[in-house]
Amino acid sequence: MIELHEVTKRYGAATAVHRLTLTVRPGHVTGFLGPNGAGKSTTLRLILGLHRPTSGTVTVDGRPFRERSRGLRHVGALLDAADVHGGRTARAHLRALAASNRIPRARVDAVLGDVGLTSAARRRIGGFSLGMKQRLGIAAALLGDPPVLLFDEPFNGLDPEGVRWVRGLFRRLAAEGRTVFVSSHLMSEMAHTADHFVVIGRGKLIAEQSLAEFAARGARAGVAVRTPDPVALTSLLTAQGGAVRPEGDALAVTGLTAAQVGELACAHRVPLHELLTRTASLEEAFMELTADSVDYPAGGPR
Ligand SMILES: Nc1ncnc2c1ncn2[C@@H]1O[C@H](COP(=O)(O)OP(=O)(O)OP(=O)(O)O)[C@@H](O)[C@H]1O
Q1: 140 and 102 fall within a common domain
Q2: Whose CA is nearest to atom 25 of ligand 1?
């Protein structure tokens, strides 16, 4: 379990993380989302003890991570796949990590196999593609068979097969009872990978919830219905407390379930041509949640 309590991190006058309190639990893949500059990488570095909080406490399984020797046995992390010694071979890199964490050498070839790099084990890392470096970084995170795993943007540079593999790997690690905390900008990937989400903006917690709760909160969540008699149906639905607005040739309804809409229409003999429950995509929900916290919005099309 990862616990942050009232954590603030300032760099000079800039506040990267502001009074952040959150718990990341075992048995789940928890997605860590936020716009550029929201404080995700800083938070991961605080968890790993690479930065000290200006105030507040950060613990992993009840203790600050910094206090643990042989850290890779407790927490495996991939922060920056490019941050490796290019002159070393993949195997030498992992052997050095294993030796300094008293991890049996046999684990090195095991994790190289797990990430599909066995045939590249003797090659120098400097010649690796970004995707291969990501795989190597994931191998390093798995090396100590740790109960807690942190990944910063792990999908970067991976081909579709790699993305699918990482997705399955994270789910497997969580199913084994580990804590898996993953930051990513790829909402669609996270929707397929994570079952819990933590969203931050400008260093502050915006939401901490399950995938279902997250998707249900978007403005597009609700019921869509098509009928040849929208006037009659609109007055029926609003009389029952629903909010109705036209959307193309359909009506978007909130405040009533699809079952309620269908039963009302049936009872009053209003024909329906289509009736469906909609959830917002993760991306839509994310955009709505973070709309006020975007530091670097892109200009619109010109
Ligand atoms: N070492 C540092 N010195 C000064 N400011 C920093 C430092 N590291 C981060 N910051 C600032 O803290 C804020 C949060 O940065 P951070 O990298 O944690 O965000 P992020 O959510 O990981 O962003 P991105 O999605 O773009 O990677 C930013 O405003 C950044 O400029």
Answers
A1: yes
A2: 36
Position 300 pLDDT exceeds 80: no
CATH of the domain at 106: 3.40.50.300
Contacts of 179 (CB under 8 A, 6+ apart): 1, 2, 24, 25, 26, 27, 28, 30, 147, 148, 149
Nearest residue by C-alpha to atom 14 in ligand 1: 39
More confident residue, 215 or 252: 252
Full-model pTM: 0.81
What pLDDT, on a 0 to 100 scale, did the predictor assign at position 302?
A: 44
Question: How many domains, the chain?
Answer: 2
Q: Are 7 and 46 in contact (CB under 8 A)?
A: yes
Instruction: Taking residues 129-137, report their average pLDDT.
Output: 92
In a domain, 130, yes or no: yes
Report pLDDT digits (tens) over 75-118.
999 998 888 888 999 999 999 999 999 999 999 999 999 999 99
Predicted pLDDT at 217 = 67
Pocket of ligand 1, beta carbon within 6 A: 11, 14, 16, 34, 36-42
Predicted confidence at residue 144, as pLDDT, reads: 94
91 with 186, same domain? yes
Q: Which atom of ligand 1 is nearest to the CA of 43?
A: 18
Distance 37 CA to ligand 1 centre (A): 5
What own/partner pairs with CB < 8 Å and gap ≥ 24 does 164-172 have? 165/116, 166/138, 166/193, 167/192, 167/193, 169/114, 169/138, 170/29, 170/194, 171/29
Q: Best of 41, 54, 153 to mutate for ligand 1, by most ligand atoms within 8 A of CB?
A: 41
| Nearest residue by C-alpha to atom 2 in ligand 1 | 11
Say which CATH number the domain at 233 has: 3.30.70
